[in-house]
Design goal:
- It contains 11 helices and 10 strands.
- It has 345 residues and is of the alpha/beta class.
- The protein folds into 2 domains: 11-125 and 309-325, 2-Layer Sandwich (Nucleotidyltransferase, domain 5), CATH 3.30.420; 136-304, 2-Layer Sandwich (Nucleotidyltransferase, domain 5), CATH 3.30.420.
- Helix 6 packs across helix 8 (243-269).
- The chain is globular, with a radius of gyration of 20 Å.
- The model has no long low-confidence stretch (mean pLDDT 95).
- Bound molecules: 5'-O-[(R)-(carboxyoxy)(hydroxy)phosphoryl]adenosine and zinc ion (ZN).
- 5'-O-[(R)-(carboxyoxy)(hydroxy)phosphoryl]adenosine is lined by residues 19, 145-147, 172, 175-176, 187-190, 193, 278-280, 282-283, 310-311.
Length: 345
Amino acid sequence: MKEHTTQGDVYILAIESSCDETAASVVKNGREVCSNVISSQIALHTQYGGVVPEIASRKHIEKINQVIEAALSEADMAIDDMTAIAVTYGPGLVGPLLVGVAEAKALAYAAGKPLIGVHHIEGHVSANFIENPDLEPPFVCLIVSGGHTHLVIVRDYGEFEIIGRTRDDAAGEAFDKVARAVGLGYPGGPKIDKAAREGDPHAMEFPRARVGDNPFDFSFSGLKSSVLNYINHAKMTGERINVADLAASFQNAVVEVLVSRTVDAAGQYGFTKVAIAGGVASNTALREGMGEACRKAGLSLYYPSPILCTDNAAMIGAAAYYEYRNGARAGWDLNAVPNLKLGER
Ligand code: KG4
Ligand code: ZN
């Protein structure tokens, strides 16, 4: 075992199992990733066109011990070297969450370490701290994942103010549904991203919805329906669909809305730093579009590497560090909370 521990360093073993990735990571002082192990179940769920919760739970049980062992061994550390054990306790699928929570409780209890419950979305936001040492709150963050689309002000570590949210589908969900309808398969985001590179983003005109009274809310169901109508109409009339053009045009509509709301929010609330987070933040067109708009508006843009955008445990370790510093400790009664809201404990 290497001699790692300098006085005061905080090492967190983090566990993530809220959906279809079994992940564990050792994170030093919130920003340095010592290991980041992800066992993806994507191949398993692809044949069903989406995540099957019961299969996901069983696979998490099968994998979680070896993933944790791999995370410790890649970091060249033992459980006794950890300062605390952290786990995602919501939001997510209840069965998968319970596997991680039960495992973290057992480990923390047996090793006599503090336990920290982490909000999955706070994890996504915190992924930005890992590779951007200069990023500190406050900043505006767009969180776009398979289950969530939120525009938030990160006031401080672990302190969020939601200023906009989706009224219907999440951005990632729209990507997944459109991809499935056009025969690209699951998960749709990366498939659309790839197909769109060969397509014309202006080939088809899809609607960009503005919703109600809040200029920072989102709605993707109208756009999704419009794309599905286009596909159905083409099928009925025997017209060949240009998948690359459709992917590029749909993606362009999503990206335009995400970029304009985020840049407007930064302007209106007077922030100069913007971050993006969640699986959809790995989208090439979103990264480029947001980059260009931020440059024009004089804003600094931060985003994690693609591997830290989609579900992983390093982001949970980063969030847990700031929770730990703030004195947050979970009890042995920590439970999975499938619909945990941001800012709730
Ligand atoms: O954050 P994440 O891994 O899991 C949730 O917390 O939901 O996000 C998964 C979502 C899926 O909907 C997936 O299709 C989408 O992120 N996604 C992408 C890309 N990579 C993943 N969407 C667009 N472009 C991508 N490159
Ligand atoms: Zn996620």
